[in-house]
Specification:
The protein is an alpha+beta fold. Helices cover 37% and strands 27% of the residues. The strands form 3 sheets. It has an 8-stranded mixed β-sheet with strand order 4-10-9-8-5-6-7-11, sandwiched between helices.
Length: 356
């Protein structure tokens, strides 16, 4: 009667490979387990490798604690270390690794839900630079015009990385200030005097402060920096709904080259708007699902026939943060919004835009 407790070698070999052994090492180790104590010749014949190669493999397995090699006798005898010892050491290493990763995970979780009160202007400028440098998709920023030179280089580098930068400059004195806006933003507006300073990057992190903290040389107010998606979403909604629409548009960049892939939706809307206004036809490959459903996301493709947006003048959205596409799939026309959309027919996780 076959031994029902013995596992076939293939699944065991595959599992050993998952833990770092090569296929040949796994085969050789199992040969030692099954035939040992055994000579190198027996192990080689069982594992299907050359005798000379068995010595190298078993030396490596011995270093990792899987086998012992007795080469003080002739012929050399190879023995498997008791599994409880061999895998006990591996388990202790995994436990140590798990503890280290858990600590890093907990530290990251804490960082991802933090608020910090900042009292120093140099510190808030440093935080601005750090957040902009770390951005992957989008930078939304409103600051006094006099502070633009402090963060010009981080903004320029963000643009070079293909990040959407929307910039509002407040407290701009046209008589005394000369602004160099070249290559620092996709769109720039001149906003209200006294507007609060704010930043949101990737709708994940940022800061907010009274205008006086960055406008005046002597001020006792504080700023708050944060890393929390819910706070960033509220801040972006307030900015696009209240401050951005009333600003005077002074710069809009040219359309970026296509094809391009986007993981946030506002850059999609911005790029598509400029492309359509330049007379180009744009096809969108959307990783999307019906709004409000638990369906799997799937790729839907079609030509973009209209845009609802408030990012570039003239606007045609009904309220500040309405930014959506109308896409002709060939079977129907659908409205598409970003991830978490509730007005449109479909919500999107990521998009590839290409010319028709």
């Amino acid at each position: 009667m076959p031994d029902s407790t013995r596992q076939p070698s293939a699944p065991v070999r595959d599992r050993l490979q998952q833990y770092g052994l090569s296929e040949t090492e796994a085969e050789t180790y199992l040969a030692v387990v099954e035939k040992g104590p055994a000579t190198a010749r027996t192990v080689a014949e069982t594992a299907g490798v050359s005798k000379s190669y068995v010595y190298d493999i078993c030396d490596s397995l011995a270093v990792d604690g899987f086998v012992s090699v007795d080469d003080h006798r002739t012929p050399t005898v190879i023995r498997a270390t008791p599994p409880s010892e061999a895998f006990g050491a591996l388990k202790r290493e995994l436990d140590t690794l798990e503890a280290a990763v858990q600590t890093r995970y907990e530290d990251t979780a804490a960082e991802n839900n933090t608020f910090e009160v900042v009292k120093s202007r140099p510190t808030i400028v440093k935080r601005l630079e750090q957040h902009i440098e770390a951005a992957d998709c989008e930078v939304i920023l409103q600051i006094p015009a006099r502070r633009l030179p402090d963060i010009r280089d981080p903004l320029r580098r963000a643009r070079e990385r293909g990040i959407l930068v929307l910039l509002t400059l407040s407290s701009y004195d046209r008589a005394t200030m000369e602004l160099d806006l070249k290559e620092i933003a996709n769109a720039v507006r001149i906003g209200l005097d006294g507007a609060p300073s704010l930043l949101a990057t990737d709708q994940q992190r940022g800061f907010v402060s009274p205008s006086t903290m960055l406008s005046w040389d002597h001020d006792e107010t504080n700023a708050i920096t944060f890393t929390q998606e819910a706070v960033a979403a509220v801040l972006v909604g307030s900015y696009l709904g209240n401050y951005w629409p009333i600003g005077e548009e002074v710069l809009v960049s040219r359309p970026p080259s296509l094809p391009a892939r986007y993981d946030m939706f506002r850059p999609v809307v911005f790029t598509t708007t400029l492309a359509l206004r330049a007379g180009e036809s744009v096809v969108a490959d959307l990783y999307a699902r019906p709004t409000g459903s638990d369906d799997d996301f799937e790729v839907i493709s079609g030509e973009v026939v209209d845009v609802r947006q408030n990012l570039v003048a003239p606007h045609n959205s009904d309220f500040g943060f309405e930014n959506s596409l109308v896409v002709d799939t060939g079977d129907s026309r659908i409205t598409v919004g970003g991830y978490g959309a509730f007005l449109e027919d479909y919500e999107v996780k990521h998009t590839t835009l290409r010319r028709a």
